[in-house]
Amino acid sequence: MSHKLRGLSIKRVQIGLTLIELMVSLAIGLVVIIAVLMTYLGSSRSSKFQAAYSQMNEDAQVALTLLSRDIQLAGYARPTAIAAGNSFTPTFVDRPIVGCDQGFSAAPASGSTIACNAAAGLPAIEVGYEADVENTVPTGAGIPSDCLGATLPQVAGAQPYFVARNRYYLANNATSGRPELHCGSYPNAASQAGQPLVENIESWQIWYGERNAEVAVPAPRQIVRYVSAGNVADWNNVLAVKICILVRSNDRVVSADEPFRYLNCTLGQQVSNDGFLRRAYFVTSTLRSRMSF
Predict the structure, then answer these.
(1) In the chain, where are the structural domains located?
(2) Could you tell me the pTM of the whole model?
(3) Number of other CB atoms surrounding residue 255 within 10 Å
(4) What would the mean pLDDT of 212-226 be, rounded to a whole number?
(5) What is the number of alpha carbons within 13 Å of residue 277 lying toward its C-beta?
(6) Which range scores top for mean pLDDT: 21-35, 98-112, 207-221, 276-290?
């Protein structure tokens, strides 16, 4: 009896894993490791995408807020007297808004003539209005400022006032090469050269909403068409501006072996092979001074 038990215990000690069981165990362990690794990589990729889209949304919000705010002020002026027909005589009577499909060929100036680039380029827009300490950020001396925070000179007259002529355009940063939204303004010399406002604005499209050209009092405020700058018949009939900006991510987050598809400003599908995410953002702003009631 004792010999049988001793033999049985010896046999149990000698029992182990077979080669097949070992291979199955290794395979299961490998599957678990791969699953954990894929989850980690997927989570990391998702985090990069979320951070990139968050940055793009912030850049777009800042850029469109700046543009929309200025466009809504276009043509703003205080009334100085009552003219014939119960209309007001304003302080600022220059162009409220003007654009070029391929950009401007000269720096912002006081004259009403606008020179557009003949060669291919990106659109640009200029907005003019009477500036005060309420619709601009005042300087330390309490003087109205342009889009870059520079002091605006006072226009002499019976009722002195300030005029802002802010010009928005796209250009690449001279150091980093990143595309940026720039602003230049007249008449400050430093502002005329232009400075960047928002990074990663790669391209944009601008459409101008026109009313009919018929003469009426008050003028009709129904927009009948949106056209590019080159097709605007009369800038005095522009009541609104529609802008699309194409924003790209700050860093490359897409691998080279998986091209990223997106819609551009004309809603055409594009493929990005350089690793950057891109997204188009839209805003439509009315010229409040032109929306007569």
Answers:
(1) 47-290
(2) 0.81
(3) 10
(4) 74
(5) 18
(6) 276-290
